[in-house]
């Protein structure tokens, strides 16, 4: 084994690489430790070598070395994934693409970026152009556009633009294959689904072309409500208010702000809260809807101050999106390391009734926060609830009951791509893997059975 790595290093030549224990440990991890089930399964996994190409040519050379010497290759970018997506289960080469971070071009309504570009840096650059990225995860600071496309779902902006898998959310992707002589493949339109949310098992994304939106001045508000039901009704009504430009509608039941020190002052008397980003000139209209639903504004930050918090880290409180989506879990884990979380999707039309049912049925085990989003012309909410963890058996009993009652659970306690939509839709992802990764070297172990039985016979 040692021999092969000496050969790999010699073949890589001047492409930056490292194999000291500290780097291998640091780069072999992501945020899988949010899950008490994944933690013991993944914490011992280590890459044998971290390779950090500086440009596409070096990606091609590294991919060729992996193919020629038949070593596993796992792509990593910001390393903020939640399910061990970038953890090298079988060791091998860890391809850190975060240095591929250039903006290639920008025009009104679209831009092309290298895959390792960080979402916050992209918006910093787009600011002067009067444009912005349409949606970003709450990990905007560290997460990359390639990582969002290969492993993420949605975030701030989803209340207006839906999710990263929706038609038109990704315009084109450039992918490098892992073969002795790697090819550069351009996927456009619906073809992007072949590699979207595929955890990097079927090609290294090197360039991404995405739609952009005209930039707004996003002001921040926190609004307190007497209870979760009132806050949720407001969340629905505000997200449905098509005339108001908005970026974030996140609703938290009272126990969450009561536990998070930074939020507590804005949730007086055990209030539920709405965490909002709204176009500054329309903040007044937003506040009127909140008041009509019994809300009281407890926090106001101008767009300029909110931008300084996001771009420069200024201000007493972090950008508000860093308290929402899966950041809520991060803050709650600091308070109580024994909790965990789930990922729930509520069907449009029935979402508020089902939110009430979940809150009532699992009162002692689930703390809800709702992320409102607009998808396919309808408004609904997802949720990443805080869950009291007692045992895997109890966790999966809760999952089964939710699934049986129209609340669809995406399991965040599994690293298997099969559990996250692989081949669920006819995306051509599996066929593309045969082409882009003929030796089955990419992120091995994430697919339960590869090659598929029929191909192996
Ligand atoms: P990584 O973690 O480095 O990689 C993710 C996956 O993509 C891996 O399988 C990796 O192999 C693959 N990959 C990365 N780059 C490439 C590439 N160039 N080519 C091929 N494959 C590639 N997610 C959301 O969707 N919304 C949220 O609001 C959100 N909030 C979060 C909050 C917290 C506190 C945490 C810890 C995570 C959160 N996430 C969220 C998950 C994660 O931050 C996002 O999905 C993020 O976009 C991942 O980007 P990354 O650059 O860190 O990817």
TrEMBL record:
A Pfam family it matches: FAD_binding_4
Keyword Flavoprotein recorded: yes
Superkingdom classification of source: Bacteria
GO biological process per UniProt: lactate catabolic process
Domain called FAD-binding PCMH-type: residue spans: 43-215
SUPFAM superfamilies named in the record: FAD-binding/transporter-associated domain-like (SSF56176), FAD-linked oxidases, C-terminal domain (SSF55103)
Keywords associated with the record: FAD, Flavoprotein
One example GO MF annotation: D-lactate dehydrogenase (cytochrome) activity
InterPro entries named in the record: FAD-bd_PCMH, FAD-bd_PCMH-like_sf, FAD-bd_PCMH_sub2, FAD-linked_Oxase-like_C, Oxid_FAD_bind_N
PANTHER family referenced in this protein's UniProt entry, alphabetically: D-2-HYDROXYGLUTARATE DEHYDROGENASE, D-LACTATE DEHYDROGENASE
Record's protein name: FAD-linked oxidase
